[in-house]
Amino acid sequence: MSQLPPQGRSVEEILTEIANWKSRDMDSEGGRLWSLVYYHSPEVLRLAQEVYARYISENALNPLAFPSLRRMENEVVSIVKELMHCPTEGGGTMTSGGTESIFLALKAARDFAQERKPHLSHPEIIAPLSAHPAFDKAAHYLGLKMIHTPLASDGSADVEAIEAAISERTILLVASAPSYPHGVMDPIPQIAELAQKRGLLFHVDACIGGLILPFLERLDIEVPSYDFRVAGVTSLSVDLHKYGYAPKGASVILYRHKALRRYQFFVYGRWPGGLYASSTFAGTRSAGAIASSWAILQYLGEKGLTDAARIAWETAKYIQSAVLKLPSLYIVGKPIATIFAIGAHPPVDIYKVGDALAQRKWFLDRQQRPASLHLTVTAGHARIAQSFINDLSEVVKIEESQAKRRGWYRKISRQALKTGLTILPERWVRSLARWISRTADVTQPPKRTAALYGMMSALPQKDSVEKLVEEFLDKALDN
To answer: Which one of 5, 99, 299, 322 has the minimum C-beta count within 10 Å?
Structure first.
């Protein structure tokens, strides 16, 4: 157990220890991460660091104490409003990230519904299966019920399934622009029309797409409708720390009407410490994230963000083209921007491909339904795209060979066990089974994620998987 040192340690000692720990992390600037980090360039990183440091002590809780922060936040929100074609009567706020933006959208929807239907019990949110788990998390905290609807064959939301799920308890419909797992755009105009017809609020999660889709449009790349130009969209979330290349965590939540934004506020007037008011979930708010978000938007401007979108788009298409040249692999669904997933045709195991790439220092998220590897392509990936393609081609070739061998082992194993069960003594059968299992590598402990995913997918109940993950998180936080 770590304890507070009796005496303060030197700056040099502390920085040395941190450097030692950090040397074991993935390199956030090297381009070998395909999620978590959105890297643009050394220049953008230095600007973000310098501006963030200048505001490291300020607190954006009180907009009157630091008028510079109020101005920067208002200007950031105004810029995002224009990009999303939010009406002049609309409004928004900055938040600490997409999860908080989504949380506030659900809180506003809940309180809006409660005011109009005070006797409404168990309010429901309807979202496609591909919607970000932040909706489930927010619903859990807010006492709302999530209704998940199936997806269409292309991975987008099924509008008919959404309509069938609507009940008198429904207060909000949800769609993604695009969805994180596969980069597929939901049919937002159709869902918006449904929301209007049924008198419901409609939130578009553009957290990952909000600061790249507008610039793809400027490049004359066809982008399905997704923002406030679609009548019926009542709220929308956009992350700045994704394709806006700002530091974590910075996001914007927008509403078509400022009257709806008021439902996300919290005000308490009976505290001895004075009047307490908060426009977002957080009390203390990072001034550094606000200031550096403003600075990077100013530094890149429309041209810089358009250029970054073009580079990310061309890099994503280049990688997708290379993937499709490998017969064992395919692109999941129909991604519309720079986010996509790679699946594998049997007998190739895409998780084992991911493990082999991880051994070569590439980090890709593993996904399920279907099994796939996720890539979020940014401008920073252009310089390493060919290196990734080379490694991917090599590990797929190796996995194809190993998959054939695993198939042979399984065939031999099944036949041997079948024969052994009928003619051999029981103790011989047990020994034979152990030998075959070892040979086929099916009883080895799950040292890599492919084995871990295989084990988890074999569990009979999804609750068993969730329980394992809860225990893992519990132990990770204590060690």
So the answer is: 5
Instruction: Take residue 198 and report the two structure tokens written for it.
Output: 């049924």
CA angle, corner 454, sides to 450 and 459, nearest 5?
A: 150
Residue type at 187 in one-letter notation: P
Task: Tally Cβ neighbours within 10 Å of residue 142.
Answer: 15
What the block records as the tokens of 387 is 């290196």
Q: Is 141 helix (H, G, I), strand (E, B) or coil?
A: helix
Opening angle at CA 383, ends 393 and 373, nearest 5: 45
331: phi > 0 → left, psi -120 to 50 → alpha, else beta; which? beta
Average pLDDT per 10 consecutive residues for the chain, totaling 479 residues: 87 92 83 85 94 88 83 95 96 94 97 92 96 96 96 94 97 97 96 97 97 97 96 97 92 96 89 85 87 96 97 97 96 94 94 92 90 94 95 94 69 50 52 52 45 45 56 53
Q: How many CB atoms lie within 10 A of CB 219?
A: 13
Q: How far apart are CA 83 and CA 302, in angstroms?
A: 10
The rounded distance, in Å, linking the Cα atoms of 240 and 206 is 11
Q: What structural domains does the chain harbor?
A: 49-298 (3.40.640.10)
